[in-house]
Amino acid sequence: MVWPRSRGFAAIAMVALELQPFSALAQSTSAIQVDGTSFALNGDNVSYRFHVDNETGDLITDHFGGLVTEDPISVEIDFVQGWVTKIGRVRREFPDLGRGDFRTPAFQIRQAQGYTVSQFQYQSHDVLEGKPGLPGLPSTFGDSEDASTLVVHLYDNYSSVAADLSYSIFPKYDSIVRSVNITNKGNGTITLEKLASLSVDLPDEDLDLLELKGDWSREGHRVRRKVDVGTQGFQSTAGYSSHLHNPFLALVSSTATESQGNAWGFSLVYTGSFAVDVEKGSQGLTRATIGLNPLQFSWKLRPGQTFTSPECVSVFSEAGVGGMSRQFHRLYRKHLMKSKFAEETRPSLLNSWEGLTYGINESSVTRLAQESADLGAKLFVMDDGWFGNKHPRTSDTAGLGDWQVNKDLFPNGLEALVDDVRDMGLQFGLWFEPEMVNPVSELYEKHPDWAIHAGSYPRTETRNQLVLNLGLPEVQEFVIDSVSNILNSAPITYVKWDNNRGIHETPDPNLDHRYMLGVYRVFEELTSRFPDVLWEGCASGGGRFDPGILQWFPQVWTSDDTDAVERIAIQFGTSLVYPPSAMGAHVSHVPNGVTQRSTSVSFRAHVAMMGGSFGLELDPQDLDEDERAQIPDLLALAEKINPIIVRGDFWRLALPEDTDYPAGQFISEDGSQVVLFAFQTRATINNAWPWFRLQGLDPQARYSVGDTGRTLSGKTLMNAGIQLQFEGDYDSQVIILEKQ
Ligand SMILES: *[C@@H]1O[C@H](CO)[C@@H](O)[C@H](O)[C@H]1NC(C)=O
Ligand SMILES: *[C@@H]1O[C@H](CO)[C@@H](O)[C@H](O)[C@H]1NC(C)=O
Ligand SMILES: *[C@@H]1O[C@H](CO)[C@@H](O)[C@H](O)[C@H]1NC(C)=O
Ligand SMILES: *[C@@H]1O[C@H](CO)[C@@H](O)[C@H](O)[C@H]1NC(C)=O
Ligand SMILES: *[C@@H]1O[C@H](CO)[C@@H](O)[C@H](O)[C@H]1NC(C)=O
Ligand SMILES: *[C@@H]1O[C@H](CO)[C@@H](O)[C@H](O)[C@H]1NC(C)=O
Question: Which residue blocks in 20-58 are alpha helix, DSSP H?
Fold first, then answer.
């Protein structure tokens, strides 16, 4: 590369050269190649390339997609007609607004003088082994064998603002993780009005956008639509990632399917409000930005201060949407989840909520626990309703915030109860909702100012509760102490951490992000203090099913909707980005509490055992004889296949939105075991029975097929498949295949 014409840029570059401790820096690793100021990141099946424009110091994208071995031939833009100048016509890594690129920018900085123009130019770069963490934020991790990192240092010499763009590649997972930090090196205070974690320009003309939409009890429904001219996108303003949209976007070529075609997935490692913008500009390029929601962000940086964005994981696959999903699953299991349980078999559980709701006391809980043990569960979870003394938690109107066991309901205390349950051969788990407070509570009487509020505006309640301001260090300490005290008081091995409302009135736009930094500090502290506890996230179901949570909690309650038919769509949708191992899925009573649908207990259990954390959420005393009799065998089956669910690869063979015969398939890590789940959601007559063609098998190997007594080759199973017969609506089959 030749140095620029512009003298200022040359001067900066020379300063950088003088300052760089070259000896300490690798210029390349096997996954990162640097040629002057051209950069290439190569995974097993992905290449990501960009270079410094030698005239402007801007970073220009050359390629993001399947493997290439050099820069492709492209046409130099040397003449433009019209208002859109050259930088508005090229693919840029860190685009600004205000200098002729009229597309959505990656960032916007209000400079000390008030204007929002920026001009970042390349200054220097570093190549590091491994993947560094981000201060105070969840992030993927890996050592030199797993990942390499390129940091590109940019500088705006007009305002003395520095930006470091970080690119980490996990070659085995075809994943590139990006984040950015901004440092104010000037003398005045600047304000970050927008800072996306990632901005990417793709050249493809014809792309579809894939995302997960929903609402309470309807999370994770897949939507696919054409990327059209103009901007399209989605966001959360709920203060949390939310049920409404997930911080995940895929752009796929319009012809891509589950198993073929190009798919780019982008997953924001964050739990707060976020925004995704996809813009197809006048020149036909498609730009996507994903990051903090600018509506809830306006961050001041005083001289010397730095702000770090959350990171965004991008995955590319030429094996379609399914290929993309499996890369996310593997990466997240091995390089995002820190819990020791991330790839461990999970105990099947019985949770008291749907069976007892607020009917909790020593005798009802002991009875329910004994019935759980009799059925074969391994973990008993006492849900809401166990705490509060002055304002007992006997309904959702009081008690949140008062994390002491209720002495009337549990006269012998928590420890005695836990000991009794453990004597039945069960582990004991407990429900908390530590980020919340009921106005009717001792906590609120003492600290009304701890609830998030904006001056004298009404504090709007939902579910009779308010949100505690976790941005305040004293509130963080209170939560850490309250939860620690209970966990230290008895041998509790599982915690369900719930969070049942969104954030409303905030005192300033940055509260949401400060709150998240506070929550992350609390999670880090508690999970380090109690590493042997299995932590499960929950937020009215899947209101916070996001990669930020997964850093500390290896599983999340997927939805309050336990209707098995709906759950197929929710779990298949959620699996676009999140591993099935992370999904909590339970069998509840019929007719289902939210949809009123009735399905057989085996159908409900088969759907639930596709999730890593299988359980029952019912009172066995309400089951009819026949249902009850089936449960021990269903629990045993769930337990038998759980190692494959938790560590294996998942293939969506047929989608519930496309067919009455949705199907999914797991392959164990070593390829020796396969589990096929096949469902009939609507019975018809005089149609041929469906075929299920397996995927990802060893074509040469032979597999025994369930209890058919037959063995078939991988080729036969993949190219011809297995034909199955069903009986009535909501019928299901689970078939285990073993490699011979
Ligand atoms: C910039 O780089 C291009 C391509 O490498 C080269 O053709 C051109 O002469 C360079 N321009 C300057 C001003 O150095
Ligand atoms: C920044 O660069 C411009 C253009 O090269 C130059 O005119 C200006 O003097 C530089 N400013 C500073 C503060 O270095
Ligand atoms: C990578 O590409 C090779 C060759 O096309 C293919 O066999 C392999 O399955 C791909 N791997 C993944 C993970 O997509
Ligand atoms: C900004 O990010 C880069 C890359 O991660 C890192 O090396 C640098 O230390 C960060 N700067 C600050 C002040 O945190
Ligand atoms: C900041 O102020 C000091 C003292 O006035 C001055 O020497 C320095 O150049 C200024 N730095 C920048 C980046 O403007
Ligand atoms: C315990 O709760 C059950 C309902 O779940 C109730 O029938 C029973 O009377 C309660 N027992 C006591 C001692 O409060």
Answer: none
